[in-house]
Write a structure and sequence with these properties.
There is one protein chain. The chain is mainly α and 61 residues long. Helices cover 64% and strands 0% of the residues. It is built from three helices and no strands. The mean pLDDT is 85.
């Protein structure tokens, strides 16, 4: 018979929480930069990629 004890719970350190938050901020900044780049393209190029300007503005891609 196997017993489980709660003496060693696996906790999340505050440092890993900060790292995850920084990764999220970096990811959001990268996505915003990609959106800005897509918005600099003309409508024909966006259409060739299967996007519309509205899709890019709303982030629906």
């Amino acid at each position: 018979m196997t017993t489980t004890t709660l003496s060693n719970p696996a906790g999340v350190s505050a440092f890993s929480f900060v790292q995850d938050a920084i990764k999220g901020f970096r990811r959001n900044r990268a996505r915003a930069a990609q959106r800005r780049h897509l918005l600099s393209l003309d409508d024909k190029l966006l259409r060739d990629m299967g996007l519309t300007r509205l899709d890019v503005l709303n982030g629906d891609f």
